[in-house]
Amino acid sequence: MMATATNKQVVLKGYVDGTPKETDLELKQSILSSLTAPEGSSALLVKNLFLSCDPYMFRRMRQFYGSYIPPFVPGQPIEGFGVARVIDSDDPEFQPGDLISGTTRWEEYSLIRKHEQLRKIDPQLDVPLSYHLGLLGMPGFTAHAGFYEVCSPRKGETVLVSAASGAVGQLVGQLARLHGCYVVGSAGSSKKVDLLKNKLKFDEAFNYKDERDLNAALKRYFPQGIDIYFDNVGGEMLDAALLNMRMNGRIAVCGMVSQHGHSDPRGIHNLYNLISKRVKMQGFLQSDYLNLFPKFVDHVVDHYRKGNITYIEDLSEGLESAPAAFIGLLSGKNVGKQVICVARE
Amino acid sequence: MMATATNKQVVLKGYVDGTPKETDLELKQSILSSLTAPEGSSALLVKNLFLSCDPYMFRRMRQFYGSYIPPFVPGQPIEGFGVARVIDSDDPEFQPGDLISGTTRWEEYSLIRKHEQLRKIDPQLDVPLSYHLGLLGMPGFTAHAGFYEVCSPRKGETVLVSAASGAVGQLVGQLARLHGCYVVGSAGSSKKVDLLKNKLKFDEAFNYKDERDLNAALKRYFPQGIDIYFDNVGGEMLDAALLNMRMNGRIAVCGMVSQHGHSDPRGIHNLYNLISKRVKMQGFLQSDYLNLFPKFVDHVVDHYRKGNITYIEDLSEGLESAPAAFIGLLSGKNVGKQVICVARE
């Protein structure tokens, strides 16, 4: 006789048209007939510990198939990156008790299959487990790949980072500082600005909501212009940055959270500066650089152990808190990387 | 006693705010005290033969110093590329009778100094003199540098060229065909479309003014998407191209004649596709690649002699015709590269 288990889930009610709301998600309880990975399935039955809230996920709430990732399935728990413990395994590479990070679902227990980004967590690493969703996870690797591979930084260059205290931005800024760059972060509250300047060691930071004229703000912080803009937001900040790029500047287009996958309602008006300043603007996804992942982990863990890098998380307790925490990303309620703690072990 | 000479000139009346008009330029007659290059001036006194009308010149009609080239000086003849014959020289590298191409002024006779792009024309080349303003001049070299250096083309890739029958576009398309690419050109009249298909050997061409939905038009010509967009116009065509780029596509941002240096009034809305398709978008100027100029001349002259490349010019007779010919560029009145013939020899 197999033991059944209840399984709380966060489910997408239906596809979203406008701005996603908390009520587009609902908590459900389902029943698992057993906590086992079926024989022949090559799958893992895992207990989810930490779940990641990431802006790209908003696009999956819309019925749009033209993106690099298909939409969520209504009525099903949503998918996302997570850290989990293997309970049962039909894959010989994984054993019960193993800790893994990779794509899982927003529920207590998931049956998952091996995939490109599913990794066994090395217990020797000795970093907080949740960091595998941020500093050592997809956002951290996005920062690493984007900064080193797309921005081609040189010592002494000037760097602007938007959404600078977010999951990606905070690491970009710290890597840039360690590389010998001058780094300015933009964020949406005085608390975040304070963290950027005092905890994350950015050279300067400002609250874009306090600036009536973003162009003037950028001229103040970059009197000689911007060599590298690591763009996490698109929209008006991108337009203002275009006006302030230096000759041969680079723009890494990493996210457009201000548009969350919709076309930009306001439009970008200053692309002409790409010509006059010979600027390269490049979109990228971390998944194209996975061969660099081991190097990234070594590099970041080394700096973390030496105290050169810190990482700020916004930890939300319990699956019940997940919808509010996730939707809060849209308005920047989170301070640092937003993570849901489903269970501690 | 030195002979004086009259010198007809095309002069900028004053800085322009909105769209440049023919009446912003005027014909003047000045007097040259002599047709000589003053001793110690290191200058050349030249007789201008052909003058080039190029879209970048519109920006120089505005009082704007943020571009890569300063504004024209009101009351003075405007500057531009030209082909001229040396009448007198105080520079030992040039002799009376030499033919040169480079920056000169819109007048019958100019006193010019050696500069980066001033070149002696090799009479052995045996191509029409005016071609040194187009096929073998700045526009041709823009096509060459942009296509080979910025677009990194591979055989079999799909290429969209806007303003495709223009001074730059017609060569881009022909180079792309010779490189083994599939090339579609967009232009603004049925006559130009006909030239693209039948004379310039593009695979396909369409009149963008006949298309109510540019996105649908591009989907028709590029069912598999666009690898390379050589953008000479910006605006709506760029926005539609962004929706149709293929994975790892490249956009060479060469000109935004639709905006002639003003910020885009409509705005670009589809930059999100840079991320999902990992597209590189790069602004460039030919002047950054001048070390490749000799290679370019060899390459293009070789193809021209073999009959692999043709070049369409729109030749306008006399300095009197210059203001109308120049302003006509803005509405695409020219068919092919617009040149003013000031004198035949």
TrEMBL record, chains A, B:
SUPFAM superfamilies: GroES-like, NAD(P)-binding Rossmann-fold domains
Domain Enoyl reductase (ER): 30-340
Entries under CDD domains matching the protein: double_bond_reductase_like
Listed GO MF terms: oxidoreductase activity, acting on the CH-CH group of donors, NAD or NADP as acceptor
InterPro entries: ADH-like_C, ADH_N_2, ER, GroES-like_sf, MDR_fam, NAD(P)-bd_dom_sf
The entry's keywords: Oxidoreductase
The protein's name in its UniProt record: Enoyl reductase (ER) domain-containing protein
